[in-house]
Write a structure and sequence with these properties.
alpha/beta; Alpha-D-Glucose-1,6-Bisphosphate, Chain A, domain 3; TATA-Binding Protein; 3 domains; 6-stranded antiparallel sheet; 20 helices; about 40% helix; globular
Amino acid sequence: MADYLDNVQKWLTGDFDPETKTRIVELRTEDPTALEDAFYKNLEFGTGGLRGLMGVGTNRMNQYTVGMATQGLANYILRRCGLSGSPQRQEPSVCISYDSRLRSKEFARIAADVMSANGIRVWIFDNIRPTPEMSYAVRLKGAVAGIMITASHNPKEYNGYKVSWSDGGQVTAPVDAEIVAEVARVTDPSMVRFQPEDGVGAPVELMGKDVDELYLRDLLSLRLSPEASARHGDIKFVYTPLHGCGVRLVPEILKRAGFPNVIHVPEQDVSDGHFPTVVSPNPEEPAALKMALDRAEETGADIVIGTDPDADRMGIAVRDNEGRMVLFNGNQTASLLTYYILSRRAELGTLGEGKYVVKTIVTTELITDICRHFGVPVYNVLTGFKYIAEVVKRHEATGEFICGGEESYGFNVGQFVRDKDAQVSVLMVAECAAWAADRGLTLYQLMQEVYEKFGYRKEALVNVVRKGISGAQEIRDMMTAYRENPPQDLCGSPVTKVIDYLEPEKTGQPKSNVLQFFDEAGDVVSVRPSGTEPKIKFYFGAKGADADGKIARLKAQFA
């Protein structure tokens, strides 16, 4: 109790703006519980950066916590660039972008000011831009790091601060832990250099349409079927950015690729951090795409596409054989695009030595089967697109990344961007539809063809919530029990392989509290506690004609 009240008192008596102090007094009077939550700890800067509720306090996203995070990152960049005794010499510089969330522009500007005040050159976008374009810009400008102000698909009350490194990928070991440690040393806003001491900071330069054009040019260079696209340019798409920044580039890339029939959802084209037309701006959730689906019924559109606020993830819906719109999940979309890209490259004769695909360990094994068919290696990595980017970085000089994805609706193609990218994913969906149409198929029918060739698969995710201290202990006990007494079968099929990711010497992956069980029939169950929420996650994957039934039985067996 005393600790949080000490923090409150420091903010009330310290050099904080009057509006912040007024809000603290209001909370103290009107909502003491909220006040305690806002000050009982510092908002943690983790390996992925910051993410939290916006508001006053040490445990909130605000101008002071953003400034402190940026000062820590600046200190690390200066040390790495040789300006603080390191032998490594590189001009200190960052690229900054932000999405449509509330206060995103303000936080981006604060980050730019702090970096400039610390002598670090800044390139910042002149308006909202997608996360993947920030990744692209880091590589384009040769920057040391990138900052993206976004909380992805979280509710409107949240914002976040995501850090990428010089390869354009999100930071990974050892850089991630080193940045976390440096940020932790900035314990008070008074330690932040918000303004340059001599009144002249490093340059802050705007990026805009110049970078857009280069980004679009490079993504469009990845096209595989321009002739088919020209033949089927009449395919009708409904597109929604869900009030995010995808509206700036997704319709444009479709039109430049030869697909002018892009039908908008006007209410959702408005870039608004209140997300007024949806409960959650998450394309994984069917409710988020309802207005787009309704628009498709009004207009007779063939395909519905939705992107999240920072336009790195994409959800789609297609028409089935009866003309009804059906939603594809992330596993289906990633499998379909992988099948299209490998098939088309095989036709073009551009599959060969050094080409590879990457997926996360909890993403469908259907991608593994597809890659095996085409003789293309597939790398499995831990959950998180940063690990996909890490593989690309590791093989940059010796191989070519074809594509890769994860079950949570993230996909990427080519090496220009080192993060999931909804823009290039939309481009590939459109091309895939045109290529399928050349063969007299819809996307739905092409997905059925994939199942016929490689076997039907069904995936499901179940989150088991266990709150509080007792819940955390229960989750630990569950993981211990699975390690000491792993299941002997999955739905009656013998377990043939168990992978424990706490054993990096065996997995070749970073140490992670994840277990996987594989059976004789091709089914798989992955178990991992959430790193940020009081839950344990069960990823189920079943193969065969009875895959739907097996999913139900696996849920009963485990969750």
